[in-house]
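hey so i finally got around to running the thing on that chain from the lab meeting. sorry it took forever, my laptop kept dying and i had to restart like 3 times. anyway pasting the input first so we r on the same page abt which one it is
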Amino acid sequence: MSPILLNRLSPLSMSEDRGLSVSEIAKSGVLVFRERSGKLEFLLLHRQKHNDWSFPKGHVEVGEGLLESGLREIYEEADVRPMVVGRLTDLEYLDGKNRQVRLALFLGYAEEKKYTPSVSSEGETAEWLPLDQVERKLSYENLRKYFRTYVKPLFLRKQTRVQVRSNIVFSETEPYKNGAKLLSNTLLGRGITSRCIELDRLIPDKEDRTLKRVCYFLSNHQNVPNAAFWCKVFGGYVVNGEYLRFCHSKSQVQGLLEEYGVPVLPSEPYLFSDKKHDSTWMVKSERHGMSKLMSIKGSKFSSWDVYLEQIADEKRFTEVKLGYVAGQILAESEDLNIPSDLINALRRVQECLGLEVFSVNIFVDQGGAFYIIDVNPAPAFYRNAKARQNFAIYIQLIGKLYLE
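ok and heres what got predicted. didnt touch it at all, straight out
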């Protein structure tokens, strides 16, 4: 079985039937690679307690999702925050106590300049090893066989002359044209052939078999799901395609997030009383801009008519805009300290919605509690140069590893 790209990843729960039997132990890990001086290296972990070499991995804690757990483990054990390129085939085995274990593994990428060759932590040592040494270094035959069967072939494919083109698709009905151009220019700057296409002018390259497309839809237009399906039929890979197939309305998104315990806007509009003027107010913004106070005494609104951005005078809430690109969380403000529970909530958004790339509006109150009220599968992260660069790296990796 070949590796699969990120799609809808259901969080594991021992109390629910998600393909995991009660007798199984759930583990998760991220197998990280990097390019150093033109050569591939992989991160392995040496455990002094067992005197063995293994993939960085660990137990899925109660309430955690698979990806969330794997990223936590790789950070705790090796101080690495990789970009997630895809999910690999699960590995099943019996542990030393003859218990069934299911290990979910993801493929991650780390930039060379960010992480030192080795990191020690609590009796464990993480070390970068060249591709041709990994299999010999691993202590267990099942891990050696797994690496040989599912990982190594990804990096030993014969280089072909297949060209990968990134299509940034936008709609004239939405104000994303400038963003599409910025994103395309960033891709071009990294040597990726890229073009911006208006949704109504999207035509598949039926005859060109040497062309492989990665399509990204910078649009929420109602025709996007059909266009995404159309692109897949003709051989293109669609970023966030699983989401576009699964659901497209914010009410469905909100329902899923509530189901998986992600903080969202309350089901009723958020109201507060102004006793001084004897009136009831809410905070509302139709364009996600500056809030305006509106009297709504006796009126009814759906929860998504309300955008809880800030209570103007009291300033009880602060708005934070975040972008998520393949496991990397990026804020518009570089010095923003993102709390760990918020990071975990965003991991859960990815897992229950299958989004490789998205943006989200977060509202944090004075007590530090937060609400996720707007998840956007076609984010405006093009405003953030760092996020654009991460997206370009992600497209490059998809082209190298998954498009034959």
